[in-house]
Design a protein that fits this description.
Blueprint (H helix, E strand, L loop, with lengths): L24 H9 L30 H4 L9 H16 L4 E10 L5 E9 L2 E8 L4 E9 L3 E10 L11 E7 L7 H4 L9 E6 L7 H6 L2 H18 L10 E4 L2 E2 L6 H8 L14
Amino acid sequence: MSMIRSFEGFQPVSLKQEGDYQPSETDQLSTEEGDPGMDPEPRQISRQPSVTESTLYPNPYHRPFVSRKYFATRPGAIETAIEDLKGHIAKTSGETIQGFWLLTEIDHWNNEKERILLVTDKTLLICKYDFIMLSCVQLQRIPLSSVYRICLGEFVFPGMSLDKRQGEGLRIYWGSLEEHSLFSRWNPWSTEVPYATFTEHPMKYTSEKFLEICKLSGFTSKLVPAIQNAHKNSTGSGRGRGLMVLTEPILIETYMGLMSFIGNRNKLGYSLAHGSIGF
C-alpha cells in the first residue's frame, strides 16, 4: 500500500563551507549598480523572457501542418494522378504532353474547385480528380484552336456584391459569349459557360515541388505558345482568328454569394480532411 507522508518539518540545509561564500547574481548586480557610501537597498530586478526562434522547419516553405489536410500533398497522390492522366492521353489521343499543373478553378458563382490542368499540343484538359479515392471524376477537353482570348488581372466584383475575393487570376475564353444563355449564367451547376477562371492553389508554398506545379505564371508560359501553335496548325473555321492576351480586371458577377461563402470558407471544393467527425 502506498503511503503519503508530510515532510513539513524538514528545513533546507546549505552545503557551503565557511569561507566559501559566493555572491548571487542579485548581490552582484546590487553591488555593481549601487553608489559607494550608500546603504544597500533591496531592488527589484526585471528580467526579459528569452525568445527562441523555432528551427523545426528551416526550409522557406511554411504551414507544413496545414498541408497535411490536403490529400493532394500526401505522399504519392499527385504522382498517381499524373500517371493516370498520362495513361488516359496515351490510350485516347496520343498527343504530346506539355505539362501538368495543380490550380484552383473559380466558377461563375465564385466557388473554388481543385483542378489538375494538362496542356498537350492540341488540347487543354481540366480534370476534377478525387485525391481521396485516387481517381478522375470528370474531364473537360478544350481544343486549343478554339481559345481566342486570355485575360490576366485582379478579381473584381459588382459594387453590390457581398462576397468578394482578393488576388489575381487567369481567364481563358473559347466558343462565343453570345451563346452564353441567361439560364447557364445563373445556374450554379452549369457546364456550358464558355470560359474558365483559375488562380493559384493554396498549397503552392508547401514544398518546392508544389511551388512549380501550382504557379500560375508557369502555366501561362506553357499555355500561350501551345495555343498559338495550335492556331497556326488549325484547318478549321477558327483558323486565322488569332489569340489575344490581355491584362485587365477579371469580373466575377456574383451578388449574394451565400453558397460560395460557405463552400470557400470550409474548402468544400478540395479533397480535404475536414476533421474527425464520427459517431
